[in-house]
Design brief:
The N and C termini lie far apart (about 40 Å). α7 runs antiparallel to α8. The chain has nine helices and seven strands, in the order ααβαβαβαβαβαααββ.
């Protein structure tokens, strides 16, 4: 990793660590729901997992330690994050494969069906057509008895994107009290320019058109959800 990218990464990840530590994006509740979904679907059967937009894998790695993982494959655009992910996943007890790649490119490059496709707070960065392509590729790459776990922010029905941005950033500034004002500003700027969440009905329609079926949804807060899909 080169020094400037490392500095940028650890500055951003230090902020994100406080977001996770404060449970501001409901990682604790969603982690419980992820454990329940994996346990209910696989029981004690081992499974392979593809983690798209894995970041440093700090929130998923402890969850996976409760299961028999055959193979973990993760992809992220940050090489610095992947270096930290390798450390966080070192206790997993299975082969770990990490790729510096775009999540859609990684999904397209997969040659063997995978038991679990997982993505957390990443899909909302894609435009609508790319989201549709993501669901189609996931349906093709998922093993017949596999499951897709999608953690993401979701707009309310009939909520325009600019209204969502205003509501979410206002909520963020009021609720994320452990962060400095400069950190609020940086996160809000990122959201306004890079976040394009869809209403739930749109995501469900995209999944259905791709050949996936929603089996459960966990909503600890209006915008934050775990959505579980299987092949139809």
């Amino acid at each position: 990793m080169n020094e400037p990218s490392a500095i940028r990464f650890f500055h951003v990840w230090d902020t994100y660590a406080r977001v996770v530590g404060g449970n501001y994006m409901f990682h604790q509740e969603l982690g419980v729901a992820i454990r329940a979904a994996l346990s209910g679907h696989f029981r004690k059967r081992p499974f392979s997992l593809l983690d798209l937009g894995c970041g440093d894998a700090a929130t998923l790695a402890p969850v996976l330690q409760d299961f028999s993982v055959k193979h973990y494959r993760g992809a992220d655009l940050s090489e610095a994050a992947l270096a930290v992910a390798r450390h966080n996943l070192s206790e997993l007890g299975c082969p770990v494969e990490l790729h510096h790649a775009d999540m859609c490119d990684e999904l397209a490059a997969l040659t063997t069906p995978v038991d679990v496709i997982y993505s957390s707070y990443a899909l909302h960065h894609l435009p609508l057509l790319s989201k549709a392509a993501f669901f189609r590729a996931a349906a093709q790459k998922l093993a017949p008895d596999g499951v897709m776990l999608l953690v993401d922010v979701v707009r309310e029905e009939d909520q325009p994107l600019d209204v969502y941005h205003n509501a979410y950033t206002g909520w963020l500034r009021a609720s994320m009290t452990a962060l400095a004002a400069s950190e609020h500003d940086a996160i809000c700027e990122h959201i306004v320019h890079n976040d394009f969440p869809e209403p739930w009905s749109v995501l469900e329609a995209l999944a259905t058109a791709a050949g996936l079926r929603m089996v459960s949804v966990t909503t600890p807060q209006t915008w934050h959800r775990l959505m579980v899909f299987v092949r139809a």
